[in-house]
Amino acid sequence: MKSLKSILQTTTGMGIIIILLLITLPVSTALADTAGPNNPGLGSNVTDIGTEAWQNPGNITTPDSPYATVTLYHGHRFSNYLEGTQYGFIIPADAAILGIEVKINRMFSGHPNAYDNMVSMVKGGAIVGDNKAITTAAWPTILTVATYGGASDLWGTTWSSADINSPDFGVALAANRDNNGNPTTDASVDTMQITIYYEYSTTTSVECGDGSPVIYGDSIMCVATVTRSTSDQTPRGTVSWTTAGSGSFVPNPCTLAGENGVATCTATYTPTAVGSGTHLLTASYAGDTFFAPSSASQSVDVVQRPITVTADPQTKVFGDPDPLFTYQITEGSLVFNDTFTGTLTRESGEAVGQYAILQGSLALPIDYNLNYVSDYLTITQANPTCSVNGWTGVYDGNPHGATGTCSGVYGETLEGLDLGASFTDFPGGTASWVFTDITGNYNDANGNVEIMISKTDPTCSVDGYTGVFDGNPHGASGLCSGVNDESLEGLDLGATFTDVPGGTAHWVFTDVTGNYNNASGSEEILISKAEAMCDISGYTDVYDTAYHGATGTCSGIGGENPGTLNLGETFKDVPGGTAHWSLTGNGNYNDQTDDASIVISKAEAMCDISGYTDVYDAAYHGANGTCSGIGGENPGTLDLGATFKDVPGGTVHWSFTGNGNYNDQSGDASIVISKAEAVCVVNPYVVEYDRLAHTATGNCTGVVGEELIGLDLTGTTHTEIAGYSDDHWTFVDVSGNYNDTNGSVNDEITLRAVTIVADAKSKAYGQVDPELTYQITAGFLLSGDAFSGGLIRQPGESAGTYAILQGTLSLSDYYVITYVGANFTITGVRYFYPMLLNLSGLH
Fold first, then answer.
1. Is the Cα dihedral 421, 422, 423, 424 positive or negative?
2. How remote is the C-alpha of 470 from its chain's centroid?
3. Alpha helix (H) ranges present in 386-491?
4. What's the confidence (pLDDT) of residue 531?
5. Which of 54, 98, 309, 723 is buried most deeply by CB count within 10 Å?
6. In this structure, how many other beta carbons lie within 10 angstroms of the beta carbon of residue 839?
7. What is the pLDDT of residues 588-633, one digit of tens each?
8. Strand 278-285 relative to strand 238-243: parallel, antiparallel, unpaired?
């Protein structure tokens, strides 16, 4: 609150009377409050920004002139900080800062406009928070107050009472001006006042339940207590409740009630999930007109809800499907429409007996502590299914008996079946089978089946002989076997034969076991003449100037000579011929005759031909190489084909014509001529602005120094003043023999430099100033251009020397002026002496 002294200092007349009347009435000290506006106790220039220093910065500590000022000009457009500190605030230690408002009374004079560059708060001696500079509107030309921040604006940072009360708390301003010409701009600041908005704090406490854990689905009472830290008011408003777990509050929010600075409200909390088991419950006071918000939290343990279910007992016959397993809730209850999931199961097993009914997948949400009480499923015995068969078949030497199985209710094969006796010999017998259950789940069973066995035939495999005469006796071969592939005695294979044409072997099988029938048959023994083994080969190869014919031999049995061999003719020339060979047998072997081919083909000359690959050089290029024959002889005529000069070259078709001993050949060779690099020289330019277009110069040359067409410099053409870095030029080849290329140069069109020299002037004291004139001593003006403005001189009328200044004399933006001053001289007072008159006769 403002002090009475400050109120009296800023109020006059009737306002004083009204204020005094208000002072005499009881006023709450707990209202949200303001402090200020206060002026700084210290003004400083701080060089953290800009280049131009504020003059007399201490003038901002008191209103009205003189002011803190800074002069801004071309090339020096930005000021340092003008910083105000030591505002002398005394904010209560428990107050919460709501907002900061800054009012700056400022103006400017001269040309061009002045603007805000930075307006920021100072905390602990450092620039902090938002920059609230008004950069879109120029300063006024008369003192005008600009407002920054406000009652709820914290300037993008946080504040404590200690921050505000510190002598290092304050505000900083930096100014700048337009970049427009050389005249100066003077920025002035009268005051930098600050107002602080704040409110009083509270403390909130919370108490939920009696400290015992809360069961999921049950409720506890929570009490929030809000207590003032300062003032004589009692907090009002509401408290909102939140939980870090899952749950609900009723009511939410609750409304505070109380007196003497302490207010309470209650809400019922019901946890809707156990979660981590600890719920952090938070009461948040929203604040009111007098007090700031506050909050408090309490952790409450939440435990699972207990519930007991008991299984119902069940029975079934072994092999039947399980009945539905059911249960009852015997202790506790469900809440929030929660339901069971899953089903009961039982101990595994299908044998007769009792099996515990298990909880299985039966479950409740994690918020429950489920206690399960078991019971039993009872399984009674079932009858087996037995299928037993006898056997009927031919004697096979193996024992035979009944076959079959006994199966259970699931189709499983049961152990305990005895199929009775087995029989090997004719006529078989009766098998008595008995099933004795070993599982305990089935009844015993029994019965009889017949086993009938009859005689069988033997299996006789007898082969004759067919072959070429080899001097050895030959007869039938074979054997008779039984049902188990055993070899049977009693087989007579008959006669054997050595000479051509052989004969007939009569075989007889007489059974000695009594289990097989007798058998007989006949097989032919065939003997024919032998063939000599002749291995005769022709000849196939490339012409080599030598004679070639058939090669090989004929041999008899055991390597004996079978007769006379004639290999036929030989050949030297292409294409060769046919050699007719013959064998005349010696009586033991057949005669033989056949042909063998003698194939002589043309030889290939050795041709080594290569193409050409290189960069364009303005010369003709083609294939090169040679062809050679056997022993280095000349094989024929080689034609290397065409030549090429220009990119991309081409394909050379070469041919070789053989001389009769060699095949003709031909092929292609690539002549690859790649583009050369042009040599481009581009010259940049630096010229003064003259309203004309300027273009860089240059040329591109080829491999023999020829000038090439295709250089485009239009990208370097400019008229206006500027530095043109990376002006792009391109070379596009039109001959096809050079690569396109490009590059850039740095061109520049500069301001026109003009030097003017002021003419020295003088006058006698008391006379009117003569016209100030000047001369152009370097450079010249373009047609139609002219100076504007005029020279001035330093002020003063006393006798002495005064500098002649450039003043407002200027040219358009295309020029840069170098001004050389001169002196203006005022000579001393000219005295006039009156004539001496004889005044003695005058009366």
1. negative
2. 87
3. none
4. 86
5. 54
6. 7
7. 688 999 999 999 888 888 999 999 999 999 899 999 999 998 888 8
8. antiparallel
| Tally of helices (H runs) and strands (E runs) in the chain | 3, 74
838 has a pLDDT exceeding 50: no
Show Cβ contacts of residue 13 under 8 Å, excluding neighbours closer than 6 positions.
Answer: none
Q: Please give the pLDDT value at position 32.
A: 61
> How does pLDDT run across 331-372, given as a tens digit for each residue?
999 999 999 999 999 999 988 999 999 999 999 999 999 999
| Nearest C-alpha neighbor of 808 from the set 785, 794, 791, 787 | 791
- Which residue carries 């057949």 as its tokens? 590
CB within 8 Å of 247: residues ≥ 6 apart: 269, 270, 271, 272, 273, 279, 302
**Which pLDDT does position 791 carry in this prediction?**
96
Q: How far apart are CA 324 and CA 353, in angstroms?
A: 18
Report which DSSP code applies to 137: S
CB 407 within 8 A of CB 414: yes
pLDDT at 16: 28
- DSSP string covering 559-621: G---EEEE---EE-STTEEEEEEEEEE-SSB--EEEEEEEEEEPBPPEEEEE-EEEE--SS-E
HEC-encoded secondary structure of 343-385: CCEECCCCCCEEEEEECCCCECCCCEEEEEECCEEEEECCCCE
Per-chain mean pLDDT for the chain: 89
> Are the C-beta atoms of residues 345 and 358 closer than 8 Å to each other?
yes
Model pLDDT for residues 169-216, shown as the tens digit of each residue:
999 999 999 887 778 999 999 999 999 998 888 899 999 999 999 999
- The residue assigned the tokens 């109020």 is 11
Tokens of 564: 């006379």
What beta strand segments (E) does 21-150 contain?
33-38, 42-46, 68-72, 81-85, 95-110, 114-123, 126-128, 144-150
| Those residues with Cβ within 8 angstroms of residue 836's Cβ, 6 or more apart along the chain or in another chain | none
Tens of pLDDT, residues 625-681: 999 988 888 899 999 999 998 999 999 999 999 888 889 999 999 999 999 999 999
| Three-state secondary structure string covering 161-226 | HHHHHCCCCEEEEEEEECCCCCCCEEEEEEEEEEEEEEEECEEEEEEECCCCCEECCCCEEEEEEE
Task: List residues bridging with 97 in a β-sheet.
Answer: 198
Q: Identity (one letter) of the amino acid at 387?
A: S
Nearest Cα neighbor of 53 from 74, 75, 82, 30 is 82
Nearest to 53 by CA among 75, 76, 70, 77: 70
pLDDT cut 90: percent of the chain above it: 72
Q: In the structure, what pLDDT confidence band is assigned to residue 22 with cuts at 50, 70 and 90?
A: very low
Which is nearest to 631 in space by CA: 662, 654, 666, 609?
Answer: 662
**Number of Cβ atoms within 10 Å of the Cβ of 579:** 23
Structure token pair of residue 301 = 């343990």
Q: Say which residues have a Cβ less than 8 Å from residue 706's Cβ, sequence separation at least 6.
A: none
DSSP class of residue 330 equals E
Nearest one of 283, 272, 300 to 211, comparing CA atoms: 300
Give the model confidence (pLDDT) of 785-826 as tens digits: 999 999 999 999 999 999 999 999 999 999 999 999 999 999
HSE-up of 39 (CA within 13 Å, CB side)?
A: 14
Separation CA 273–CA 256 (nearest Å): 28
Token digits for 599? 């194939």
Buried b (16+ CB within 10 A) or exposed e, 217-231: bebbebbbbbbbbbb
Helix (H) or strand (E) holding 519: strand 519-528
Q: Which amino acid is at 488?
A: L
pLDDT value at 832 more than 70:
no
Residue in the block written with tokens 């190489």: 625
Per the CB < 8 A criterion, the answer to whether 739 and 677 are in contact is yes
- Which residue's entry shows tokens 């063998």? 596
